[in-house]
Specification:
The complex is a heterodimer of chains A (about 500) and B (about 325). Chain A is about 30% helix and about 20% strand. With about 500 residues, chain A is an alpha/beta fold. Chain B has helices at about 15-20, 20-45, 50-75, 85-100, 105-130, 135-155, 165-170, 180-195, 195-205, 210-215, 220-245, 255-265, 275-295, 300-330.
Chain lengths: ~500, ~325
């Protein structure tokens, strides 16, 4: 099948087949065509050329309902839920239980949704809550439950685990296995190799809109080679040299919402990892440091002086020199409709303007420099950010913060949902930044990243620093066990 | 092996409804406040409280705006806006005034025709928005002028005639019978919200892409919303004709904006997908109450628009503030 958008060929004569009773993983970098393929199979797009066969019959899917009628249901990457409606309404859309007058009975709908969720082993989501009031992970679960509840013969899951924590992932996989054992075909995409390995019966690799092969056995380095077309000898670059002795950022007894008396010292040139299970106060710690939340106690010292940071604006001031790079590039800060240049220079408008008027030449030069430095792949500085692939968007977001030449960088799970090649570039960039003498505080939900890149890793549990691991010799297993157990296996 | 996810206690249904309908609750609050203010102003002037006559005239006066507000709600819920509401009222009002005959058959027949004209007007809007993929504000601004122009053509001078019986049925002045219509409209809305079409309207307003991906025929639903809106506007035109016992091709002009105000005061989100026409009904009454209060406060009619505007800003600000507080506390 082929599909082009404008001049971009998203899918280029790609083919693949999945059988009943198997779990089939599609892997590839961002922009390799997986999501496009799933949209075609889910009936949201029509292919330019090529055919789809479901259960042996050639089909033309002009709408999702046609896929549904053939037992094929899809959980799209961007969730298809209605934020202002209740979980029950979302779950039962189009098959709402009716009351005696033929109108929808909300009472019965609530009960039916409750039963549906319980049947799938979900009891922590209130069917009467509005979707906008539940967490992202819960929304993802609702979307999955909705698809599962139709008892699909074919189930497409596009990045279903990106917002789920481990426990929720194992819930999903249990469901997927049960479905497979009933003879259904499950096709899913993920950037997490561990997940692919643990659940997939077969794996099809995509690169640049083409399929490069289907495998039953594939190890990670082979997969990376296939996905990127080049050998990545090591995904992780060498750790930067030992940092200077005197800390640039010191935190003592810092407390706030979900943060309990945290102390840490960050030195110039250091990559300090923060690990732990989701929801243990990392995010809150980062927000406190960046002035987005108000601490209830404790001290933050920068360069030996007490820092007065009451807002992100304060944090960004040159005397503090902080920068915060968040995880979710769509909701946290990228203006998708505006150009790469506008997005890059947003944080330094005061520096490139005179009397409030932008100096366009300088703006352009600086934006171009940064694009080169980060090797952002875009037609030019004036192409809209929304037209870039996810990995390149992430780089633009990074670039914006680097524009201000910060000394202390707060990296919050920046590689989540990013493809391998881009991850590699982000790692290299981090190491380079550390070599330049910048201090990096680095939270990641991927323990391996932390283990490979950090000089030290602080593991948080219930808002406190529960363990400190020092390189060399940190392993992902150590981080995970420190996050889970009271004592770490030294 | 079962991966168990933590349990959480449920809030009862009423608590959810209370928390999820803040906009509606605020409009009730606003209405009560306005009614009290009106009673106070009335008492200060007349040394007595408003009685049956005042209730009747209030309800009859508000009925057209109630209908126009519901028309607007339907369209706004789909993320649209209908500026042609006033034009449709003009046209249907003018048509009613020159066609309604004295026989019951003629009245029923021509009322039906007028409602169909409203539906046709809505269909034009809906086709241009739904199939033509044009901005609703642009489309309905254009059709507003068109419908107004046709209305003037139909009835160049105010006039025509509406049979007494017709007035007695729709806008009876002997008692607040129109309250029955208001209640009926509220019940009708509640039922509509619980039909597949009603759900689809909300779904589209929440997320048009998701609606499509869930197999909702989005275009058809949007078109239907405009058509139903047109029918409701036409009903407002009929009501105006009945209470004025004549027609006027400019009588609806004010309704474009006041219907939007009613929608906002009723807690319907202009971004679509949230709110209830019951709120818009209350919003219509709030507007009417404000006009009445200004009347009793002896505001110079020249300044009436100014004070109405001030009232609205204050009301919407207050509603927003309370709404935000309620959200924060949740």
């Amino acid at each position: 099948m082929s599909k082009s958008f404008g001049g971009v060929r998203a899918l280029d004569n790609a083919s693949f087949a999945a059988a009943a009773g198997e779990v089939h993983a599609l892997v590839g970098e961002n922009g390799a065509g997986k999501s496009t393929l799933i949209k075609l199979l889910g009936g949201r797009l029509l292919p330019d050329t090529g055919t789809i066969r479901l259960k042996g019959n050639e089909v033309r899917l002009t709408g999702p309902e046609q896929a549904h009628a053939r037992g094929a249901w899809t959980v799209f990457q961007e969730l298809m839920l209605f934020a202002g409606m209740t979980v029950a309404e979302n779950l039962l859309l189009g098959r709402e239980p009716r009351g005696p007058l033929g109108v929808i009975s909300h009472r019965r709908m609530g009960r039916a949704a409750e039963a549906l969720l319980a049947e799938m082993g979900i009891t922590h989501i209130d069917p009467l809550a509005l979707v906008e009031d539940i967490s992202l992970a819960q929304r993802q679960i609702v979307e999955i439950v909705r698809a599962l509840s139709h008892e699909p013969d074919i189930l497409f899951l596009d990045e279903p685990t990106s917002s789920l924590v481990e426990r929720e992932v194992s819930w999903l996989f249990e469901r997927v296995r049960a479905l497979r054992d009933q003879g259904a075909c499950v096709i899913f995409t993920s950037h997490r190799w561990n997940e692919v390995r643990s659940i997939a019966d077969r794996i099809t690799v995509f690169r640049n809109g083409r399929d490069v092969g289907t495998f039953t056995e594939l190890d990670e380095s082979e997969a990376v080679t296939l996905m990127t077309g080049q050998r990545l000898d090591t995904l992780f670059p060498a750790r930067p040299p030992e940092p200077a002795a005197a800390p640039v950022l010191q935190v003592q007894d810092l407390s706030g919402p979900r943060v309990d008396r945290v102390g840490l010292a960050l030195r110039p040139g250091e990559i300090l990892g923060i690990g732990g299970l989701a929801g243990q106060g990392h995010r809150e710690l980062f927000l406190l440091l960046f002035g987005a939340d108000r601490p209830s106690g404790g001290r933050i010292t920068i360069d030996g002086h007490a820092a007065r940071i009451h807002s992100p604006r304060d944090a960004k001031r040159r005397i503090h020199g902080l920068a915060f790079v968040p995880e979710d590039r769509k909701t946290e800060g990228l203006l998708l409709g505006m150009s790469v240049r506008d997005n890059l220079t947003l944080s330094i408008l005061d520096r490139i303007s005179r009397a409030g008027v932008l100096r366009l030449g300088q703006e352009r030069r600086q934006a171009q420099d940064m694009m080169q430095r980060l090797s952002v792949r875009a037609a030019g500085v004036s192409s809209p950010v929304g037209a870039l692939s996810g990995g390149n968007q992430q780089k633009v977001l990074l670039g914006r913060w680097l524009m201000a030449e910060p000394r202390i960088l707060l990296f919050y799970d920046v590689t989540r949902g990013v493809d391998v090649a881009t991850k590699h570039e982000v790692y290299q960039l981090m190491v380079r930044l550390a070599q330049e003498g910048r201090a990096i505080l680095f939270y990641s939900s991927d323990a391996e990243e932390l283990a490979e890149l950090s000089h030290r890793v602080l593991v948080m549990r219930e808002g406190r620093i529960a363990a400190e691991l020092i390189a060399p010799g940190i392993t992902a297993e150590q981080i995970v066990s420190a996050a889970v157990h009271e004592r770490i296996a030294a | 092996m079962s991966a168990s996810l933590p349990d959480r206690s449920r809030r009862p249904r009423w608590a959810h409804l209370l928390a999820q309908n803040i906009g509606l609750e605020l409009s009730v609050f606003l209405l009560v406040a306005c009614v009290l203010g009106y009673c106070g102003a009335f008492y200060a002037q007349q040394q007595r409280f408003p009685g049956g006559f005042e209730v009747t005239s209030t309800v009859n006066n508000t009925m057209p705006l109630v209908l126009a507000g519901m028309a607007q709600t339907l369209v706004v819920l789909t993320r649209g806006i209908d500026l042609s509401v006033g034009g449709v009222i003009d046209l249907t009002n003018a048509t009613a005034a020159i066609t309604l005959g004295d026989s019951p058959g003629s009245m029923v027949l021509w009322s039906g025709v007028v409602l169909l004209i409203g539906a046709a007007c809505g269909l034009v809007n809906g086709l241009l928005v739904g199939l033509g993929r044009l901005q609703p504000i642009l489309v309905t601004l254009a059709t507003l002028s068109i419908y107004q122009g046709v209305a003037i053509r139909v009835l160049p001078q105010p006039g025509g005639q509406v049979p007494e019986v017709y007035t007695a049925v729709l806008a009876n002045t002997s008692g607040p019978w129109s309250l029955l219509y208001v209640v009926a409209l509220g019940v009708l809305w509640t039922g509509f919200r619980r039909t597949r079409l009603g759900v689809a309207v909300f779904a589209i307003g929440n997320d048009p892409q998701a609606a499509q991906a869930n197999g909702i025929a989005a275009r058809r639903v949007v078109i239907l919303a405009y058509v139903l809106g047109g029918v409701l506007s036409a009903a407002a035109g009929l009501f105006l004709a009945a209470s004025a016992t004549a027609g006027d091709a400019t009588t609806g002009n004010g309704f474009t904006l006041t219907s939007i105000v009613a929608v906002v005061l009723g807690g319907v989100s202009l971004f679509g997908g949230r709110g209830s026409a019951v709120g818009a009904i209350m919003g219509a009454f709030v507007i009417n109450m404000i006009v009445n209060i200004l009347f009793f406060a002896h505001i110079d009619p020249l300044y009436q628009a100014f004070y109405e505007g001030m009232f609205l800003v204050v009301a919407v600000l207050a509603a927003n503030g309370i709404g935000r507080l309620a959200r924060v506390r949740r």
